[in-house]
Amino acid sequence: MILGAIIIFFLIFNSGNFTPQEEKEKKKPSIPSISIGCNRVFWENAQEVLEATVNNISNPSFEWKMNGTPISTNHKFLQEFGIGEHLISLNVTFNNQTLSAKKSIQVIDSVDGITINEYAVSKNQWGFQTMFKGKNTGVKEVMVFVDSLSPLQVNDCGVVSTKALFSGKHKWKAQYHDVNIASGTFNIKETSELKINRIEIAPTYTAGSVVKGKIILVNTGSVPITEFATNTLAVNNDYAWMGDRAKREYWDQYKVNIEPGETYEIPIQMTIPEKVSGIRPSGKYTITVYILLKGVKVDTKIVTTVVR
């Protein structure tokens, strides 16, 4: 297997293991923040749990108001709402600072003003956003039906997206309390696309240990993937000054059947010898893995290797 061959090359050339290489961002100061969620719409006789989400805040105190009247000093509580619009506000006080958040809760007894907006989420998924009187609002209990698939319920912010779909024309409708509030069709274009989702591997190894991991690919297009290739370039960072002698390139071809949204795993497994030609293998490599469809590179992932 290609990755096993790469590892053998590492060991012969004093090298090591795979680890995902992520860009190391400079640590940024932690900024205090609060949230009380999205604007919501409920059917009559509504109850809602109001909860504050706080980040990077110590010993906060809470002051909740509804339509200007104080209602609670708790972090989380259950509140009843009558028909009409209710303006919710929260002040969080900490370390002589105060942060504020607001949202609207509407309680209704008819479907008037409820509709839904549709949009493309990705090359194989479609999304829906509930609206109330022309504004994006989380309308609780709206259900979306696409083709003959199981119905989808929107989340607290009124958003839901389909699973990965095949290319072609699809029908949909949305219902709220058994009333059709919107319907239509959308078209998923024919797209062939394969991405490296992630590489699972331990961050470091020692000589004599076992390497176990995998590369996980996902079909992000709208047609099945029946074959793909990998092109891998390995460079020994410690010996880069040696030019091509510090590099190795490998190719591999796969016959598969990966449907839209499905994943495919390439396993990585081998034992690192304690010594190679009497020398303990150690070092660091950079490996670039390319995914190719019909000879065209469609995705890239960089990993590093270290054996101690």
Properties at a glance:
mainly beta, 3 domains, flat, six-stranded mixed beta sheet, 308 residues, 57% strand, 1 helix, 4% helix, Immunoglobulin-like
Strand and helix map with partners:
Layout: H1 2-12, E1 19-20, E2 33-35, E3 40-43, E4 46-51, E5 53-55, E6 61-66, E7 69-72, E8 76-81, E9 84-94, E10 97-108, E11 114-120, E12 126-132, E13 135-136, E14 138-139, E15 143-146, E16 152-153, E17 159-161, E18 168-176, E19 179-188, E20 194-200, E21 210-219, E22 225-236, E23 247-258, E24 263-271, E25 283-293, E26 296-307
Parallel strand pairs: 3-10, 3-14
Antiparallel strand pairs: 1-26, 2-5, 4-8, 6-7, 6-9, 9-10, 11-12, 12-13, 12-17, 15-16, 15-18, 18-19, 20-21, 21-24, 22-23, 22-25, 25-26
**Share of helix among residues?**
under 10%
CATH architecture of the largest domain: Sandwich
CATH class of the largest domain: Mainly Beta
Low-confidence stretches: 11-26
Shape estimate: flat
Major sheet: order of its strands? Answer: 7-6-9-10-3-14
- C-alpha-based Rg, rounded: 27 Å
Question: How many beta-strand elements?
Answer: 26
CATH superfamily of the largest domain: Immunoglobulins
- Biggest β-sheet: count, sense, barrel? 6 strands, mixed
Give the N-to-C terminal Cα separation: 24 Å
Number of domains: 3
Q: What is the fold named in CATH at topology level of the largest domain?
A: Immunoglobulin-like
β-sheet strand percentage: over 45%
